[in-house]
Amino acid sequence: MTNETSLPAKQRIWELDALRGLCILCMVAIHAFWDLSAFGGFAFDLPGWFLFCRQYGHILFILLSGLCATLASRSFQRGVYVFGAALVISYVTFFMVQVLNFPDDMLIWFGILHMLGVCMMLFPLFKRLPVWALAVLGVSFVALGVWFESFCIPVNFLFPLGLRAQGFYCGGDYFPLLPGFGWFLLGAVIGRTAYRKKQSLLPRVNAANPVIRFFSFCGRHSLLIYMLHQPVLTIGTILIFG
């Protein structure tokens, strides 16, 4: 959930920035509804498309991250940076739940940033594989992750892989490596095929359009938005409606 492309500003692929920006803003909207429900006492009759995005929208973001990893350099270093940011979020949410008595849903043990950070660190081990091998591994990891959801194991420490013990609670933001790394590799397949020239597929679109520029700006700063939006939303909702 970070600016993973290392291309100069004039060579940036605008549709990837804009799509990442759209994804991060949809996530902010989803968390805003959750805060209004949990802390503001509001009840919402959410439309089907919104529920679909809440359930499966993260897949698009992971695919984008894997795609952008094929355009970027220093994937491992970027992964360390993202995972470090994820650890900060874990410590903050642990303090909020254990000390300030916030709901357990706020706790994040292994969220989307943890997963993406590890995926970026692992990707250099896979990036030289042929496209067909990345596709086979991606599909296999997704299938393995789905299978892991069907049973429990007697220990808790494998939850980052998607293996959980009976009754183990991972918080409201839980995205294990399986199937997450599978979606990441499938995104890399798209990057290695559709974007092998590292150029926009929509060069005739006016990227200077204010709407596109706004979404692109959000996409380029998606990690900062992710880090800041939840405390701002939660504190704001409590101060206004609490």
Highlighted features:
242 residues; mainly alpha; 2 domains; 62% helix; globular; disordered N terminus; Heparan-alpha-glucosaminide N-acetyltransferase; HGSNAT_cat; EC 2.3.1.78; acyltransferase
Give your account of this protein's structure.
- This protein has eight helices and no strands.
- It is mainly α.
- It has two domains: 54-199, no CATH class; 204-235, no CATH class.
- α1 crosses α2 (48-69), α3 (75-98) runs antiparallel to α4 (112-122) and α4 (112-122) packs across α6 (177-194).
- The two termini are 30 Å apart.
- Residues 3-9 have low confidence and may be disordered.
Short description:
The chain is mainly alpha-helical and 242 residues long. 62% of the residues lie in helices and 0% in strands.
